[in-house]
Amino acid sequence: MKKRGRAAKPKPKARRDQAPAGMPTKEWRQHHDAVVEDRDVKGERGVRALAQNAFDRYWRRCELSPGDRKDNMRLYMAGERLRGDWERAGLDTRARQAFERREGGSAEDFSAARVDAYNRVREAMGVLGPTRNVVVNSAVYGDRVGREKMEMLRAGLDALADMYFGRRRRA
């Protein structure tokens, strides 16, 4: 005869913080610095981890403007603004191939905010001149810039900051 024992209590499952779809959990946020930002004109929000691309690392290490934290922030904000305009204008999907099929256009493709962002990007491309590729690859796509091109990145971001925020007063 089999002896009946007490039934073992089930172990409680580990509780995980349930975050909304597309948003990071509390555990992830404890280990990463992140920014919640609008992704496009429709108001969809997304999370971008800071210091995962080279441009964010340059800002954190104060390499955009060594020795001047205010100017470092100014150059970083100019690059961030270019990246935001680039995404709002829809250029990220046009520059890098998307594999999903689209049927026709929609009103969202030609909204006023998208057209304004596209015009700002075109103006920025004119202002950047020969530094355009270095700035776009670093600020928009997060690619690394070698030491030999860091001065080009600084010069391009300075011109871009002058366009977005006006000329700074030199001491």
Q: What do you see in this structure?
A:
The chain has 171 residues and is mainly α. It has one domain (26-96, 107-165). It is built from 7 helices and 2 strands, in the order αββαααααα. A two-stranded antiparallel ribbon has the order 1-2. Strand 1 and strand 2 form a beta hairpin. It is elongated, with a radius of gyration of 23 Å. It starts with 25 loop residues before the first helix and ends in a 6-residue tail after the last helix.
SSE inventory with pairings:
Blueprint: H1 26-31, E1 34-38, E2 45-49, H2 54-60, H3 69-88, H4 91-95, H5 112-128, H6 132-140, H7 147-165
Antiparallel strand pairs: 1-2
Overall mean confidence score, pLDDT: 77
| Distance linking N and C termini | 95 Å
Order of helices and strands, N to C? HEEHHHHHH
Strand order of the largest sheet: 1-2
User: What's the number of domains?
Assistant: 1
Number of helices: 7
C-alpha Rg (nearest Å): 23 Å
What percent of the residues sit in helical stretches (DSSP H or I)?
40-55%
Structure class: mainly alpha
Percentage beta strand = 5-15%
Residue runs with pLDDT of under 50 for 5 or more positions = 96-101
Number of strands: 2
Shape: elongated
Biggest beta sheet summary: 2 strands, antiparallel
